[in-house]
Design goal:
Strand content: 25-35%
Number of domains: 1
Helix content: 10-25%
Distance between the termini: 31 Å
Radius of gyration: 24 Å
Number of helices: 7
Number of strands: 38
Bound molecules: fe (ii) ion
Length: 619
C-alpha cells in the first residue's frame, strides 16, 4: 500500500558510521570547532552591535558551516518512477477542453482537489558528510495542490479549468527565499547524520524538518485546508490555491494535526488528534462545528509514540489506533531507527466517549498489524465496528541503510506471488473488520477481502461517516507495476459491498480496471446532490497514462462501477502521483477562480467563477 507522509520527526537511522552517541557528540563538537573558532575571533566591540546583526551573522556562519560539511547528492530514478517526479507551478488557470463523454447534468459544481509531494528543494537528494548519510524517503516532497474546477454555465454547459500550486508553508518560504536546498534530509540514514541534521535545521531555520503539508485536503466550516500530520493545517483559498497561513484554531492547538480529521456525525464537530515524538505523545482535540474554538482536548497518556495516521468516529465515540509503528528518539540516539515497525509489539484499539479522557478509553487488544487508513466505524448494539485496510507490515520507513531499497520495496509488493517470501513482511493490504464489544470486552476480527486485490486509500459517501454504510471504494494496487517501480502504483478502483457482513466470508467486490500503463491517485467519492441511496454518486480520480505521459481526470458512475468512465478529461499538464483527493461541492458564481487564464488554441474556453458556499451538511 502507499501511505501518506509521516513526518512528526521521521527518519530511519541505522548502522551509524560513528558507533556510539558519545562518539557522535565528540565528532559533532569537533566539526563545529571551525565555527566556534570563527566566533572567538569576533572582536569584543561587537558586543555593542545590535542583537539582530549578531544573530544574522551567526546564522550566516551556520549556513557556511553546513554548506561546507554537507554535500547534496542527486538520487538516481528509474524511468518506471517518472510520474513520481515533480512538475512546475503553472502559475495560472488553464481551460480544459479535451473532454470525452458527458459530465452528468446532476454532477455537483465544485472543485476536485488533490494533495501530494512535489519535491522542490532537495526532495530527490541525499546528503553525505562526516556524520554519514541522510536522505528523504519517497513520500517526502513539498505539497502541491492540483485542482479541477467544475462550473456549470447558464446554458447548462460545463466550464472546466485546471490549476496547481505549492502549499506555501513557512519552511517553503524560507527555501524559496534562499533558492537552494536548505533543510538537511532528516528522514533516513546514519543516526549521527540525522541528529546533526535536526540540530542544524533547528538552529538555522527554527524547525527540525520541513513542513511539507502534502498529504490531504479537507473542509471545515466553509474553509479549506491542506495538511500533513507533522504540522498545523494550512488554510487555502480554494479559488486561487494560495496559502493563507497556519490554522491553530485561534491559538488553542499548537502541535501536529492528523491528516485525517473526521466530522462527528450529528454535531458536525471536527474530531482530530496530534501525534508528537515528545510527550504527550497523543492528544485528541474536538473543534466546534463553526471552526472557531477547541471545545475539548485530552492527553490519552500513551506510553509510546505510535504513528497513528487516522481516527474513527461513531455517533458517541472516538476510535483510536495504537499499533506498534513507533517513533522513538531514545532509540535514535542509541543508533537505532527513529521509526520502526515492531511486529512483536502490542496493538490495541481504543473506544472513548466523544469528550472522554485517558481514564474513559476502553482498550481492546488486537492482533498486531499495520493500519494507516480507516474505512469507517459505527455502532451496532453493544458493539463498535471498525473497518480499515490492514497489512502485515509498514511501507514506512523503508529498509535499513545499506539494503537495496529498490529491491526491498519490490519484494514486498511481490510477496503475494512469491511463496518463499515471508508473508509477515508483505505490503499486501486487505479490508479488515474488528467488532469490539463494549459490554463484554470481547474482540472479533476478520478479513473482509481476500488475496485477489491489494487495496488502500478508502473512501465512502461521507454522509455515512460514523453510521453503518453499505459501500466503500478504494484504489487497487497493481502489484506487477509496483514491483517494477519499487513504488506503489494503483491500476484500478474497487467498490466493496458490505451488505450483511456477518453472513459472508468476504464481501463482494467490483473492480474498475484502468487501461494498461495507467494508474490513479487521489480518488474521491462525489455524492449526487439529492441522491437517495448511498451509492448515488461517482468516483472521481486523477489518472496518468505512462505510455503517452498524459494525465486525465475520470468520473466513474458508482452504480455502474465496472463500466467505462462516464467522462474522461485530458489535462493540459502532467499530474504526478500523490496522496489524498477530495471533491468540494461549492457553488461557482460570479467571481472567477481563473482571472489570468493561459491562452492557447488547445486551452481557449470561456471562463467561470467561484463563490464559496458551505459544503453540504452531513447528516
Ligand atoms: Fe492518509
Amino acid at each position: 500500500m502507499a501511505v501518506c507522509s509521516f513526518k512528526v520527526i521521521n527518519c530511519c537511522a541505522q548502522k551509524p558510521s560513528i558507533t556510539t552517541f558519545e562518539q557522535f557528540k565528540t565528532q559533532l563538537l569537533s566539526s563545529f570547532q571551525p565555527l566556534i573558532s570563527d566566533l572567538k575571533k569576533v572582536p569584543k566591540k561587537l558586543v555593542l552591535v545590535p542583537h539582530a546583526i549578531i544573530k544574522n551573522t551567526s546564522t550566516e556562519l551556520l549556513h557556511t558551516f553546513t554548506d561546507s560539511v554537507f554535500k547534496f547528492i542527486d538520487h538516481q530514478t528509474d524511468p518506471s518512477q517518472s510520474n513520481f517526479g515533480p512538475v512546475e507551478e503553472i502559475g495560472e488557470c488553464i481551460n480544459v477542453i479535451d473532454v470525452q463523454g458527458t459530465i452528468p447534468s446532476d454532477f455537483p459544481e465544485g472543485v476536485y482537489i488533490r494533495n501530494g509531494p512535489n519535491p522542490l528543494f532537495g526532495g530527490f537528494k541525499s546528503t553525505k558528510s562526516i556524520f554519514g548519510r541522510s536522505s528523504h524517503i519517497w513520500v517526502e516532497g513539498e505539497g502541491m495542490l492540483h485542482a479541477l474546477y467544475f462550473k456549470k454555465q447558464s446554458d447548462g454547459k460545463w466550464s472546466l479549468t485546471y490549476n496547481n500550486k505549492h502549499v506555501e508553508t513557512d519552511t517553503l518560504k524560507i527555501e524559496k527565499q534562499r533558492n537552494t536546498p536548505s533543510f538537511l534530509p532528516a528522514i533516513e540514514g546514519d543516526s549521527p547524520a540525522i541528529l546533526s541534521a535536526y540540530l542544524l535545521n533547528f538552529l538555522r531555520f527554527g524547525a527540525v524538518n520541513k513542513l511539507l503539508s502534502n498529504t490531504n485536503v479537507f473542509e471545515h466550516s466553509g474553509k479549506f485546508y491542506a495538511v500533513a500530520e507533522n504540522h498545523l493545517p494550512q488554510e487555502i483559498d480554494i479559488r486561487t490555491l494560495k496559502t493563507l497561513g497556519n490554522w491553530d484554531v485561534n491559538g488553542s492547538w499548537n502541535r501536529p494535526f492528523t491528516a485525517h480529521p473526521k466530522k462527528a456525525p450529528g454535531s458536525g464537530e471536527l474530531v482530530m488528534m496530534g501525534v508528537d515524538a515528545m510527550k504527550p505523545f497523543f492528544e485528541i482535540g474536538i473543534i466546534s462545528d463553526d471552526g472557531s474554538k477547541l471545545v475539548h482536548k485530552a492527553d490519552l497518556k500513551f506510553e509510546r509514540c505510535s504513528l497513528c495516521h487516522d481516527i474513527g468516529v461513531t455517533m458517541r465515540y472516538n476510535v483510536i489506533l495504537d499499533f506498534p509503528l513507533t517513533i522513538d528518539i531514545k532509540r535514535l540516539t542509541n543508533g537505532g531507527p527513529l521509526i520502526k515497525y515492531n511486529k512483536e509489539g502490542y496493538a490495541r484499539i481504543g473506544v472513548m466517549p466523544r469528550y472522554g479522557d485517558a481514564d474513559s478509553v476502553k482498550w481492546f487488544q488486537v492482533e498486531t498489524c499495520c493500519v494507516f487508513h480507516i474505512i469507517n466505524a459505527y455502532e451496532d448494539g453493544d458493539e463498535v465496528i471498525l473497518w480499515a485496510f490492514r497489512a502485515s507490515t509498514s511501507i514506512i520507513p523503508g529498509p535499513d541503510l545499506g539494503i537495496n531499497k529498490f529491491e526491498w520495496f519490490s519484494t514486498r509488493f511481490k510477496a503475494k506471488c512469491d511463496t518463499t517470501f515471508d508473508s509477515d513482511e508483505s505490503f499486501f493490504s486487505q479490508a479488515y473488520e474488528w467488532r469490539l464489544n463494549m459490554k463484554t470486552g470481547e474482540v472479533k476480527e476478520r478479513f473482509l477481502t481476500g488475496k485477489s486485490h491489494s487495496m488502500d486509500f478508502p473512501m465512502i459517501n461521507e454522509n455515512f461517516t460514523g453510521y453503518k454504510n453499505k459501500y466503500a471504494y478504494a484504489q487497487v494496487v497493481d502489484l506487477d507495476a509496483s514491483c517494477i517501480a519499487g513504488m506503489p502504483k494503483y491500476g484500478g478502483l474497487a467498490k466493496l459491498h458490505f451488505g450483511d457482513t456477518k453472513q459472508q466470508d468476504y464481501v463482494k467486490m467490483e473492480h474498475h480496471k484502468l487501461p494498461n500503463n495507467t494508474f490513479c491517485t487521489g480518488a474521491a467519492f462525489v455524492a449526487k446532490p439529492g441522491g437517495t441511496e448511498e451509492d448515488d454518486g461517482w468516483v472521481i480520480a486523477f489518472v496518468h497514462d505512462e505510455q503517452l505521459n498524459t494525465s486525465r481526470v475520470i468520473i466513474v458512475d458508482a452504480k455502474n462501477f465496472a463500466r467505462e468512465p462516464v467522462v474522461i478529461m485530458t489535462l493540459p499538464n502532467r499530474v504526478p502521483y500523490g496522496f489524498h483527493g477530495a471533491f468540494m461541492p461549492i457553488i461557482l458564481g460570479s467571481s472567477d477562480p481563473c482571472r489570468h487564464k493561459r491562452d492557447g488554441s488547445r486551452h481557449h474556453h470561456a471562463g467561470g467563477g467561484v463563490l464559496l458556499m458551505r459544503k453540504t451538511r452531513r447528516r
